[in-house]
Amino acid sequence: MTQSNTLELAKKGDAKAIAALMNRHLQQKGITVTVINSNDCLQIFLESKQLPDQQALAAWVHKSLTSLDSASIQVVVLYGQHTGEDFPVWNQKLELTGQQLTSPNSQLKEDTPPPVKSEQKSLSSKKQAQEGDIDAITNWLNLALQQKGITATTTLKDNYLQIILEAEVMPDENDSVRVVRREIKNLKLEKANKVKIYGRRKGDEFPAWIQDFDSEDSKEPIKPNLLKPAKFKHLKTPVLVTALVLIVSVPIGLFIWLRVSQEQAIAKAQKIIASIENANQTSNSDSLKAAQKNLKDALNTLEKVPNIPGISYQEAQTKITTTRPLLESFEQSIKAAESFESAQKIAGEAENLVSKPAYSVADLQQSKAKWQQAVNLLESIPEGTSVYAEAKEKLTDFRSKSEKAVQKLEIKESLEKLRPDLKAAVEQFSAVNSRLDVGMNYRDYGAQVRELKVALDRLAQQPGATKLPVYNSLNDAFKDYDFALDVWRYYIESDETNHFFPAASSYGSRLVEEYKVETKDIVGSKYIYLNDALSKVWFKASQSVKEAQDQI
Fold it and tell me: Is residue 221 part of a domain?
């Protein structure tokens, strides 16, 4: 590509041409340019071992792009990064103005002034993020997550940074949190003491997982949310007095024993709940039932915690509130898993009914009913359950097999109903084969082919006959018989003698390609021997008749 061609393409906004022009100058300085044109936004990545100078390069790129006078370049974003690093250290958005043209080969000067006033110069993305700019934080995280197909949305309120991670496939919890923690640590946020991360699949209303952690560089430690005496103001005086009297009246040893035992019970219940929170992701119904029983026992323990000051009653009530939906999800998952297991069992029964060599219409009827039952069970499995994805995959296969069962039943019923007519037609075709073995003249052969046509048309008028394999075999045989008659007629009506006709005739290519008839070289031209041609076609017809005999 010549320099003039490259320049013309660059003026049209071609990313490769723009990169080529810039690299001719910048590669001498150890800087590599990569250009991406995405949705009318020209993204220019500048990489070198030493971090590219933002001010000088921004000015040079600005002038160079302005010189192109390209109407297709609307927005330009520069990124500067170290060679080999995944993410840029700085980025800057440029607005193109009508400045004087600048050759891409002009020398880059270290003291080139920026295209805008210094006080208007954009802060680096990292600096903006550190100062609490929510868009800068979002962009920084998205740069780190984009290769994983994850999009981050952030909010910052009262030093509390909340991050929602979304992707087409559920973001991996451990991997996503690791990346976010790393980037938050690198940013050293000044206005976020606590971070909460939500992970969900794109389109879902609620997150599938949540994690939170303290920002490692927060200036003020997170203070525990201690229960203040003022929070007892909502209690009526008699209730408070009763509680205090109860505490005083209960022996100290008994109260301590009660508190310790209840705290142990709560801890045990919480441990059980934590251990089975993800257990409803299994597809085994027995495992789900065992986990459900443990969950019910844990809830029962929490519900028995007495409402006595000094006992962790409120903690138990909070855990009960958050755990009940989990119990409901277990019930749904168990029902879904049982439906999935039943569907697979019934599908196996449906296959066994027709796996034997000879099966009856009754066998096919039962198989059809069982396939439909299996399909109905899979269709009843709701989205969000542990077996939904596997059930959806199986559903496609079961529906296909259900349709095939219906087709098999229709064919079998039609075969039983039409068996006498089919048998008569097969015998008629077989008789023609037998006569050809003995010998037949052209006139008699033509009459036999016409009779076969009548028999086949009569059979086709019967409901369901044309769907039967035996009919298709007879139809294939008739096509061969009819073609042989056409070849014979062609030879008789031509001026050819000695039972030879040219291979270049209208029937020659089909005889050679489809029926593998050999040609004879006579006086420099290729000929086909009539008897060879008819024998090959009749042999193929006889094979179709034999298939029909087996199918009846």
Answer: no
Residue-range definition of the domain harbouring residue 245: 231-333
Q: What is the per-residue burial (b if ≥16 Cβ within 10 Å, else e) of 104-127? A: beeebeeebeebeeeeeeeebbbe
Q: What does the alpha-carbon distance between residue 300 and residue 352 come to, in Å, rounded to a whole number? A: 46
529, 425, 515, 514: which is closest to 478 by C-alpha?
425
Q: What is the pLDDT of residues 175-194, one digit of tens each?
A: 889 988 888 888 888 778 88
CB distance 491 to 530 below 8 Å: yes
Q: Are residues 260 and 235 in the same domain?
A: yes
In whole angstroms, give the CA distance from residue 79 to residue 58.
10
What backbone phi and psi angles, to 5 degrees, belong to 93? -90, 135
Judgement on whether residues 546 and 427 belong to the same structural domain of the protein: yes
Looking at the DSSP bridge assignments, the partners of residue 94 are 76
The one-character DSSP state at 154 is E
pTM of the model: 0.36
pLDDT per position as a tens digit, 290-328: 888 888 888 888 887 777 655 567 777 887 887 788 777
| Helix, coil or strand: residue 80 | strand
